[in-house]
Amino acid sequence: MLQSINQLNPDIVVITGDLTENGFSAEYDGVKMFIDRIECKNRVLVPGNHDSKNAGYLHFEDLFENRFQTRNLGNMTIVGADSSQPDIDDGHLGRENYGWIKEAFSGENFKVFALHHHLVPIPLAGRENTVLVDAGDVLDLLNKCRVNLVLCGHCHIPHVWNLNNMLVVNAGTFCSSKTRGKTTQCFNLIQAENSEKNGNGESEKIEDGGWKVRVSRVFPQGNIEFITETVM
């Protein structure tokens, strides 16, 4: 899987949490060694509920600095936010974060929001409460900010929703054995382009400043499965 990432040579790697099982220092040391093997230097990481156990969020900050961050890469803005709460599985973003998130998304870039917990329910999650406590308010905020793409983790179930032309892409598990049902280890490959080839093979901007977004899944053997494509 790590080799697949490096061969794909992505512009950015986003990791949406649960890097550890219990948030212990020794676990974080192993995680840091693993992530350092990813050749892409543009990385955004947010902690999951397991990472914040046992005050593990302190180790996260020591190794990866910010649990909340904004990155601008070319014509893309990505905001990463910590939705975890120490020793509680439920996710919560909180009104105190809405203002800076709105400000971060005030431009016209392709907008990506990354967090650990789900914004909407997904299939196969059972009765577990996986959705943010304040999911409705966060969805309203992201919709008003015209966010293009939301990246989530948490339940180890890969899934894609299209809500008001905003893709909500949930990750499976990259290397854990905790897979659900018939799912398997995988990671999401997301390609976003604001131009496409015309009949003469020349690149042209997509009408009305739109973006074509393609979502695929990459599996341990390196095989890639196309999931969906949309223009927004």
Describe the structure.
The chain has helices at residues 2-8, 25-35, 57-64, 98-104, 135-144; strands at residues 13-15, 43-45, 69-73, 76-80, 110-114, 149-152, 159-163, 166-170, 187-193, 195-197, 203-205, 212-218, 224-231. The chain is of the alpha/beta class and 232 residues long. The chain has one domain (2-177): Metallo-dependent phosphatases (Purple Acid Phosphatase, chain A, domain 2, 4-Layer Sandwich). The strands form four sheets. A six-stranded mixed beta sheet has the order 3-4-5-6-8-7, with no helix packed on it. It has a three-stranded antiparallel beta sheet with strand order 9-12-13, with no helix packed on it. A two-stranded parallel ribbon has the order 1-2. Strand 5, helix 5 and strand 6 form a beta-alpha-beta unit. 34% of the residues are buried. The model has no long low-confidence stretch (mean pLDDT 90). Belongs to the cyclic nucleotide phosphodiesterase class-III family. It comes from Methanosarcina mazei (strain ATCC BAA-159 / DSM 3647 / Goe1 / Go1 / JCM 11833 / OCM 88). GO terms for molecular function: hydrolase activity; metal ion binding. This is Calcineurin-like phosphoesterase domain-containing protein.
